[in-house]
Amino acid sequence: MITAGKKVLNGWAMYDWANSVYNLVITTTFFPIYFLAVTDEQVSFMGMHFVNSALYNYTMAAAYLLVAISSPILSSIADTRGNKKNFLKFFTILGSFSCAALFFFTKSTLWLGVLAFMLATMGYCGGLVFYNSYLPEIAAPEDRDRISARGYSLGYVGSVLLQLIGFAVVMTLPFGLDEGLAVRATFLLVGIWWIGFAQVTFATLPATKATVGQHKAGAVTEGFSELRKVYAQVKTMPVLKRFLRGFFFYSMGVQTVMMAATIFGSKVLHLPSDKLIGTVVIIQVVAIAGAWGMARLSGKFGNLRVLIGVVLAWIGICIAGYKMQTATDFYLLATAVGLVMGGIQSLSRSTYAKLMPETKDTASFFSYYDVTEKLSIVIGMFSFAYIDDYTNNMRNSVLALVVFFVIGLAWIISALLKQRQVAKAEPEKEKHLVI
């Protein structure tokens, strides 16, 4: 396989620049801080009572669950009918417009905030299925670590840039804005940024071709049939199977830490908003170095070995987070999170792209990867929210994440051992990763 030209690669990576602002501004900084500020400690929603931070995490878990259920159907449709780019456009519109709708979220419109937040999350996650599935189509195996890291790096740079713009708006309050209106204006900016820069991606990514000529069943039936086919192939690939199990468990911890860190700093450590936002900007900058550093290390030591080291680092971060007491502790730990955050995301994506078999059904295979990740996030976020709601102590939620990382670590070690065994017995198989 030949890696695509620079224009296509840059266009693909530009989607990370476009949509990563959601991940930073909406899920990590401004929105969770705003959500806690405009809601009471105990809130009533749909006839039930919740701790406000728990409702936030439950909402995100519900959105990821809906994406996990629907993405296998959508991605297999994209593969079999050759309209992958159209689905990427659909989820971009859904996510960006929902972010813009958060401009109208106030204390009296909690339902709107929850609904728009859920739809924005679905737009972000759904789009990633189709975006990620382009990677094995445009990059040869030996280039996938580097190109995956390029995407994440551009995403961090773009999101930090918009974060700084939003931070300036909130701090200076131009045009007579009050603080609440200034924060909501950043939600509108996210929607405009996302759909605007995504046009570069839509203009440069190649059209995809259908993998089958006739459709003997409906879209839903074909969708689950494709998912079963992918599952059957994964079962026959021992290294890939073990990697996905490890990925499932450590993703429970990684994504939950990233999504709940700001709420933890605000609610448990009582850090002011400007300090929290500044800290998250630092995390994003450090994450750029982390993504590129992990890509270089994987070329020297192998993907699985580097993943083992990164998961060990995450275990240490969770234990330190449980014991954290001061603002200085939070800042130091946030820097450590930045270093391993970009690395583990980028390396996980490229490792899967290397281990998956050569196939035209890339969207279906990445849907399987995406479902694995999204279900892990549902479990992670639900567990975090439930423990917080039940014990009224978010520190217990942080400590519980260690269990997920330990199980994930065990499976990645198992994948590495199995890879060595396969390489010795059948060197022509499972050869993409450096042992």
From TrEMBL:
It is a multi-pass membrane protein. Gene3D superfamilies: MFS general substrate transporter like domains. Pfam families: ATG22 (PF11700). Its main location: membrane. Keywords: Membrane, Transmembrane, Transmembrane helix, Transport. SUPFAM superfamilies: MFS general substrate transporter (SSF103473). It is found in: Endomembrane system. This is MFS transporter. It comes from Chitinophaga qingshengii.
